[in-house]
Every structure is written in structure tokens, then in C-alpha cells.
């Protein structure tokens, strides 16, 4: 008979002793805090700056704790020693960034306002400053991040961009939201990180990004939608809906020119409007996916509304500037010469309208 065997429990992993922070364990500090496995010793006066949440926390602590026992000996208080620290449920990197902002010299802070800034450190700082209500520190960090990301031209790291976008939404900082949306749109223009952009835009309700993200994925085609593991069922339904809606709009587009506001000197507005409508239709009439006039030919997908209206804008501007030959529209009328700037403005307004309304054409119902 075989002897029975039993599986012995694995020994528990040995707990690593907390380590003092190499910079922010300050010898004459009077408050000890443990964050993850790092011990900080700092000055309480620094933590209560800016009327932060620490101010309220320490005030409540002094009100509710009696520091002496019946024999007149002092009761140990949290934060008095390494053995009895105040424990914060934060990340050590984030708390270290907060200490950096409180203890750094002006010259060190100034570096963070330029292109040599450490954006990861600023992200940590803004997030923890928001949590503990260091209002001026939060505003400064968000402004520094906005400056950095508004001026940087390099290809952004997608995970880093996700973190910044989440931070901007958390803090409701519109300037930073605008800067990161521009970076997302650069990625989308390159066909990169499209599913990630859809996920971020939906989670954070960034409508100015959501429409562009869905539009970029739609142009990739259904084979890509069906094979992308990041996309969920409701997102594929939205893509189908958007494809249907935009195909219908593109088919009708040549027959619906933008509204034209005539110049005050235009006395034949009807003929001027008819000529503009004919020009618009001529530009947008497609055959086998090709669109364009006067040598301005490009291959455009049948559902690519954005490219169609941008083509119209570029041709109208070229006509207004005289850089391409004029189009004979005499059988329809004539665009008044002083109405041409208004024609350009009308097409530009149409491009803007299309960009702003992309999200509306992607709904959950086909």
C-alpha cells in the first residue's frame, strides 16, 4: 500500500523591512509617515501648507487624542517614530513627488516649467496634490504638464498618454484635456492606438475625441474591427451604425452645399447661390471613389466625409487665390467676386461642423 502524501504549504514570503527615503527622511523632521514600503520623516508644517487635507487630519487628531496616561506618561502617537508611523495608502513615487514640490529650490522648480520637465513626476504630483487638496500645487503641476505637452512634438507613449488623459479628466483641467486630445488625434491620423483612444474617450466621456476615434477605426474596415481584441460588441455596433450614417450623408453631400452668406454688394444672390451649388457639386461628384477637379484628384473612401469636405475646402481656396484655373459655371450663374471670401468661409465652416459632429453619427442602434 502506497503511503499517502500531502502537499506542504509554501513558506510565506519574508516581509521586507520598510526603508527610509534617501532624500525625504529629514533628521529634524517631526512627522513620520509610511507609504508602501518607504518611511518618510518630514516637517508637519510643510504638510499643512495650502490648507491641505493634512491640515484637517492633524487638527482632528490633536482634538480627539489625549497624549498622557493616568500615570502622566506620554502616550505614543502615530507619526512619532519609524515603529509607529502614519500609514498612507498611496504610492511612494507619488508621495515623493509631493515632497519634491514642497522642499525643492526655485531653480529646481523652474526646470519643470520647460521642455526638460519630468512629466512622469508631474503626473504623480498632480494626482496626489488633487487627492490631498494642495490646490495651488495641483494647479501649478497641471499648468506645467499642459506647457510640456502643448510644445512637445515627439511621438507620445500610449500608456503615458492614457495616464495624462485620465489625470486631466480627474482634475477637470480643460487646457490639459485640449493638449492631450491633440496628441491623440496625431496618433489617430497615423492609424495608431485607435482602439485605446475609443476606450479612453468612452470611459472619460471625451466627446471631442470619441468621434475621431470611431471615425478612424471605421475607415480601417470591418475586417479590422472584427479582429481587434480591444473592441467590445457595443463598439462594433456603433461602428456599423456610423458606417451606414456616413455613407448616406456622403451620397447626399453633393446636393447640399453649405449656407452662403452673400456680400452686401451682391445684387444677384440667386444666381450667385446657384453657381456656388454647382461648384460644390462639381467638386464632390465622385466616380469609382475618385473625387476632384482641375487636376486636384485624390482617392477617397465612399464614407470618408472628412476628406471629402477638406478636399472641397482646399479647391475652393485655390480657386479664390487663382492658383488653379477657374471653373466655367456660366450655365448656372456666376459667383460674385466679393462673395468668394464668403464661399471660402462657408466651406471652412462645413469642415469645422463635420469635425465637431462626428460623434453624433456613431450610435448604439443600427
TrEMBL record:
InterPro entries in UniProt: BTB/POZ_dom, SKP1/BTB/POZ_sf
PROSITE patterns (alphabetical): BTB
Gene3D superfamilies listed in its UniProt record: Potassium Channel Kv1.1, Chain A
Superkingdom of origin organism: Eukaryota
Occurrences of domain BTB (ranges): 29-111
Region of interest called Disordered, as start-end residue ranges on this chain: 1-21
Protein name in UniProt: BTB domain-containing protein
Native organism: Mycena chlorophos (Agaric fungus)
Amino acid at each position: 500500500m502506497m503511503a499517502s502524501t500531502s502537499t506542504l504549504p509554501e513558506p510565506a514570503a519574508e516581509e521586507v523591512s520598510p526603508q527610509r527615503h534617501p532624500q525625504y527622511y529629514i533628521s529634524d523632521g517631526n512627522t513620520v509617515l509610511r507609504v508602501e514600503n518607504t518611511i518618510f520623516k518630514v516637517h508637519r508644517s510643510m504638510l499643512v501648507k495650502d490648507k491641505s487635507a493634512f491640515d484637517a487630519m492633524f487638527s482632528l487628531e490633536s482634538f480627539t487624542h489625549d497624549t498622557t496616561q493616568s500615570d502622566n506618561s506620554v502616550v505614543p502617537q502615530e507619526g512619532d517614530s519609524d515603529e509607529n508611523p502614519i500609514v498612507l495608502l498611496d504610492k511612494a513615487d507619488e508621495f515623493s513627488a509631493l515632497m519634491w514640490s514642497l522642499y525643492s529650490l526655485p531653480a529646481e522648480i523652474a526646470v519643470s516649467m520647460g521642455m526638460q520637465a519630468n512629466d512622469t513626476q508631474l503626473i504623480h504630483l498632480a494626482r496626489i496634490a488633487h487627492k490631498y487638496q494642495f490646490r495651488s500645487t495641483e494647479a501649478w503641476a497641471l499648468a506645467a504638464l499642459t506647457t510640456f505637452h502643448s510644445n512637445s512634438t515627439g511621438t507620445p507613449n500610449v500608456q503615458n498618454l492614457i495616464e495624462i488623459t485620465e489625470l486631466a479628466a480627474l482634475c477637470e483641467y480643460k487646457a490639459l484635456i485640449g493638449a492631450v486630445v491633440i496628441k491623440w488625434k496625431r496618433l489617430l491620423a497615423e492609424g495608431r492606438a485607435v482602439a485605446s483612444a475609443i476606450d479612453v474617450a468612452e470611459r472619460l466621456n471625451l466627446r471631442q475625441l470619441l468621434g475621431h476615434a470611431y471615425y478612424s477605426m471605421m475607415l480601417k474596415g470591418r475586417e479590422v474591427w472584427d479582429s481587434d481584441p480591444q473592441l467590445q460588441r457595443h463598439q462594433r455596433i456603433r461602428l456599423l451604425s456610423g458606417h451606414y450614417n456616413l455613407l448616406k450623408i456622403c451620397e447626399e453631400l453633393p446636393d447640399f452645399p453649405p449656407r452662403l452668406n452673400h456680400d452686401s454688394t451682391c445684387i444677384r444672390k440667386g444666381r450667385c447661390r446657384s453657381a456656388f451649388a454647382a461648384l460644390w457639386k462639381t467638386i464632390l461628384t465622385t466616380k469609382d471613389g475618385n473625387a476632384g477637379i482641375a487636376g486636384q484628384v485624390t482617392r477617397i473612401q465612399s464614407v470618408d466625409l472628412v476628406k471629402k469636405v477638406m478636399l472641397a475646402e482646399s479647391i475652393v481656396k485655390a480657386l479664390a487665390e487663382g492658383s488653379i484655373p477657374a471653373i466655367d459655371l456660366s450655365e448656372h450663374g456666376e459667383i460674385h467676386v466679393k462673395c468668394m471670401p464668403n464661399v471660402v468661409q462657408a466651406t471652412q465652416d462645413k469642415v469645422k461642423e463635420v469635425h465637431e459632429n462626428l460623434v453624433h453619427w456613431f450610435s448604439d442602434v443600427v
